[in-house]
Amino acid sequence: MGTKQTASPSAGQGAVKYQIPSRGSSPSKLKQQPSPKPRNGKNTNVNVLPPQKSVWIAYLCWLFGGVFGLHHLYLHRDRHAFVWWCTLGGYAGVGWLGEIFLIPEYVRDANEDPRFVKEFVAKLQAYPKPPYASRRFVGQVMVGHLFGQLCSIAIPQILVGGWDLSFLHWAIPLGVSLGVWLVGNIGREQGVWWHCLLAAYLAYPARFLIYDETYSLLLTALVSALTFDGFSKQWRRTPPTRGTAGSRTLKISAAVLIYCAFWASFLYFNGTISDEDGGEVPIHEALHNFLASAWWTDLKQALHDTYLYGQHHGWYETWKEVFESMDVDGERNSYKVLGVSATASQAEITAAYRRLSKEYHPDKVKDEALRAQAHQRFIEIQQAYSVLSKIKSSRRRKNKQYQDDSDAIVL
Q: SUPFAM superfamilies attached here (predicted)?
């Protein structure tokens, strides 16, 4: 019993469809229909293989960014990458570790390697629909439960603009079905969404009988996954279309933003933080209080003044003053420790250092309770003197070099 490949010119490059031939056809090799000539008269083969992926690069991506789905992005498995990103590598890296021996197969799939194609066509011949796979089924249930739980916790438990939004709990089955459908459409398997959605909504009323939301969501995800496995699942006979980098980035970014928006809603409306007394303060109240605090008001005013100063004096001078005010070299603090002005000479700095060193030397302090404090102060004095001495010495060298250069130019 043979197989054949059919290609549609409207599907673009790599749009090859694997079909099971009739019993009367020759049972040897994969057959491919000849590609029709395009309208421009040029002979272009629509079955050109996609750019080949490397197993070594895939393993490197798996090793250094696998928990975020980097290797799946490299292999154009965007759905798989998004699931890994949401679950940190399949629930704290469990799925990520389980893929260590699956990378070569993923690469052969991405490259449409003849070996993979032969094995895939054998599966098409052996199974009218994809067989049950516990790994995929468990993934559907877990991701469906995760998305449903995320929808649940993101619903505000307080009045928002005077509105009670608790009715949004009816969107939870929508999240469950999306999680189930997303995992079910990874790789060479696919299925329609509405079967999962319908099953999720039919199972969701069990939440009124099962008071533990964890179990009710688990039941909803389980029913949705069973429905997908029993009614929706089928082979993806056409290799997944490889979108452009721009379209892929747009779709993945949109999915990431939506996912993060649910977490942001949970944190803002339902999240709490602990205060000094151990009480819980809602994050939205804490944020409101922070924005009304004197610290934030002063910071806003300082930023506004800096912006106006930069417009008037130039951004280079503004950045220079900001950098100097940060005292990254410790010069200002060192002047303060030694008690001298910023215009003090090296002789004045040395005199202050010697005087303070004698005053705070630990050997001169008899009280044991004050000796540790004096020792710390003595160390600060030494560090301050060292910092200022280095700065003064560096400036003298620069001034001398500049003077020598000026004399050379005059001559």
A: Chaperone J-domain (SSF46565)
Return the H-helix or E-strand segment holding 177: helix 172-184
> Is residue 111 a contact partner of residue 196, using CB atoms and an 8 Å limit?
no
Mean residue pLDDT across the chain: 85
CB distance 96 to 63 below 8 Å: no
> Residue 19 carries which DSSP code?
E
What the chain holds in terms of domains, given with CATH numbers, is: 327-398 (1.10.287.110)
Do the strands 4-7 and 31-32 form a parallel or antiparallel pair, or are they unpaired? parallel
Give the chain's end-to-end CA distance (angstroms, integer): 98
pLDDT in tens, 156-180: 999 988 899 999 999 999 999 999 9
Query: Is residue 70 predicted with pLDDT exceeding 80?
Result: yes
Identity at 121, one-letter amino acid code: V
Residues 6+ apart with CB under 8 A from 338: 349, 352, 353, 356, 381, 384, 385, 388
CB 107 within 8 A of CB 57: no
Tell me if 169 sits within 8 A of 155, measured CB to CB.
Answer: yes
